[in-house]
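Chain A, query sequence.
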Amino acid sequence: MNPIFKKVTSTGTVLACAAALTVSGAMTAWASEEIDENIRSALVTTAEGLTNSIIVLPDEDINNYLESGDDFTVNAMNSWLSAREELGDFVELQETEVEMSDGQYIATVPADFSGYDAEFVYVFEESGTPVSMSVDVQYPLSVTLERAALNTVMGLGTVFIMLLFLSFVISLFKFVPGLVEGKKNQPAPAPAPAPVPAAVPVEEVVPDDTELIAVIAAAIAASEGTATDGFVVRSIRKINHKKW
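Chain A, predicted structure.
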């Protein structure tokens, strides 16, 4: 059972009516298109009892209900918290209206406050269990028109800013050809110098003096009357003869 629903029960408002209807076999009346007066009375009592209980809840109890984990209770507390600052002090409840839609009962409880009036809208299952609650603040026509005008100004301002931004972006397009042309006209980077091949050492060519040595050795051997095996020619030097 919903925690907030228990709170209403403890104040002696709801469950007695719901239990009496269930025990008397009136379950078929909940699903009928025509709302039975007994059902209507039970729904009105439940909705007004919940409204009176929620309006006077202190912050500590609201925080406890928010931590309850029950969907209906958490939804009801959040709806009330989002609206109560604008509503001001509670004055009185007006006549509750009940209607049926899509197999569910909707009870609307008008309430007068010192700030703005509000409507507490409850959705009940066919069994009479509340499943959701919302608080609709009833703003006067002047406030509605003011908010509509503000929304219109904000919308037009947003569109105007976006148009200015688009105009600025389009104005930058004229610089694009220059940037592209500038890149084309940039001198090509100079090619890197080819690596210089390492110098190949040139092997000094020494003239082959073998034949010359053989000839000189034979001449010496002939003049000395010996064989060429008796001596070895180790070097050959040119002797400059002085002219007399």
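The two ends are 151 Å apart (CA to CA). Residues 9-32, 202-206 have pLDDT under 50 and may be disordered.
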